[in-house]
Amino acid sequence: MGTSYEKDVVAWAIEQAALLRAGDFSALDIEHIAEEIEDVGKSEQRELASRMAVLLAHLLKWQYQPDRRGSSWRRTLKEQRRALAEHIAETPSLKRSLLDEHWIRKTWADAVAKAVEETDLVVFPETCPWSMEQAMDADFLPE
Known about the structure:
The protein is mainly alpha-helical. Helix content is about 65%, strand content about 0%. The relative contact order is 0.12.
């Protein structure tokens, strides 16, 4: 085998793709290929959670700091909602995450941490008061 996965993952990936295209299956690094495929899914999950945490944090800021509401916050809400919808459209299986209680709790905890860091407030609910569908609704703004 050529390049080691541990030494240069990019060169390794190029070599593995070439081996696949050539049909040289016996030379493939199957274990690392499987890990990389699983990591693609994990990466997609992380992006969804990260964007949702930003959206939820801004919804918290909107609700708990009404005197600071402005066009910048509206743009952030709109952009995160657009990006989330696009991400789910491109990877429909991610939609299951929006109903997964464990995923929601973890994402909510990240959102609250962001909101606390950005506002110095510590009055936020322990659990998310909105459904993920509601949070992604373009017309929804908590009052």
